[in-house]
Specification:
- By secondary structure, this protein is an alpha/beta fold.
- The chain folds into 2 domains: about 120 residues; about 150 residues, TolB, N-terminal domain (Rossmann fold).
- The protein contains 16 helices and 8 strands.
- The strands form 2 sheets. Strands 3, 4, 5, 6, 7 and 8 form a 6-stranded mixed sheet that branches. The protein has a two-stranded antiparallel ribbon with strand order 1-2.
- Helix 14 runs antiparallel to helix 15.
- The two termini are about 30 Å apart.
């Protein structure tokens, strides 16, 4: 299925499916619609840049006296996203709605979600850090391991060092996405790692040593971390390496390596599957296919997407959107780029 037919509006579809789960069992919101359906309508209005009309729906819903805690969280979540889109002067108000969510029940549901703009995500991590609940409690008997993926190092030589510089972000993003396919793993969000590194002032000119990164992993409750690197020597020879490290002991658990033609997007998928096998993860034919079909096979599209991620880190949504659009134009099956376009389009007006 091509990206063009994959989704008309990722925001509306994803919000509706998520809120159906969050608001399960809620009362009708009126005229036969559920609260989740009304919130999906608000998100549709947000996508159409009709922010005030979307906010009217959230105000109407908040006026009800029969809301569950999950209902209230879902309403404030949508309210924060729409308010944030109205501009710089509304940022603090949008942040306050996140504080409302935290007071209602910080760990009732997993937040932030993929639809949150980068600055809102960072603010949520800040609120979480202040409340000392950056990681929410999990069931002690759970066999699910938590893994964090670090941004890849670029050890390429000459012109390839600059040419591949931004690809490091994209490869970490692809690794995160592909590892999330394994049911016995919980993957720490890339921007959550970035937030901790910045907050603890561990980042200096983009260079992070393994010891300080492992400290961040401990704060985030990770049992394992993946450190990767890419090296291109000439037009025909490249190496991609990934190391899985035990956060508690800092010891290397296993190493996977790929050599050959410098197509790092293909190498990434093979490394994910190799690491999964070596770590004894539950690898099925289905998640192998999902990994093979994810992302892009076009190196130019991957580089453009990576530049978009760089601008997201700076909250420069206009430039980020432009690069995601260029990536999607290069490869219209690149659904991750299309999703990012849908998330950030309302913020570039």
């Amino acid at each position: 299925m091509s990206g063009k037919t994959y989704v008309r509006n990722f925001l509306a579809i994803s919000v509706f499916s998520l809120l159906i789960a969050v608001c399960a069992g809620s009362a009708q919101a009126g005229d036969g619609d559920t609260i989740a359906q009304r919130l999906a309508e608000a998100v549709n209005l947000y996508s159409d840049l009709e922010f005030d009309r979307g906010l009217e729906i959230t105000e109407e819903l908040l006026g009800r006296d029969d809301l569950s805690a999950n209902d209230s969280i879902a309403i404030y979540e949508v309210k924060s996203i729409i308010t944030y889109a109205k501009g710089q002067q509304y940022r603090n108000r949008a942040f306050n709605y996140l504080r409302d969510i935290s007071r209602i029940g910080h760990c009732l549901i997993h937040l932030p979600r993929e639809i949150w703009p980068t600055e809102l995500r960072d603010k949520w991590y800040s609120i979480s850090r202040q409340r000392n609940i950056l990681t929410c409690p999990v069931e002690e008997e759970s066999n699910i391991q938590t893994i964090a993926i670090m941004e890849f190092d670029n050890y390429s030589v000459g012109e390839y060092q600059e040419k591949l510089g931004d690809l490091s972000k994209g490869l970490a993003d692809f690794f995160e996405y592909d590892f999330s396919r394994f049911s016995d793993l919980k993957v720490v969000e890339r921007d959550k790692i970035d937030y901790i590194l910045k907050e603890l002032k561990m980042v200096e000119e983009g260079k992070i040593d393994r010891a300080t990164a492992v400290k961040a992993g401990k704060i985030l409750g990770a049992q394992m971390m993946v450190f990767g690197s890419i090296t291109q020597i000439d037009d025909d020879n490249a190496v991609m390496l990934a190391r899985a490290v035990n956060v508690e002991t800092s010891e290397i658990i296993t190493i996977a390596e790929k050599r050959g033609k410098p197509n790092f997007v293909d190498m990434e998928k093979e490394l994910v599957k190799d690491l999964a096998d070596q770590l004894n993860l539950l690898v099925t034919d289905e998640n192998r296919k999902l990994i093979d079909d994810s992302g892009t096979k076009d190196m130019d599209a991957a580089r453009l997407y990576s530049i978009g991620l760089k601008y997201l880190d700076r909250y420069d949504y206009k430039k980020a959107y432009d690069y995601f659009r260029k990536a999607y134009e290069k490869d219209d099956s690149f659904t991750e780029a299309k999703k990012k376009m849908d998330v950030y389009k309302p913020l570039i007006s």
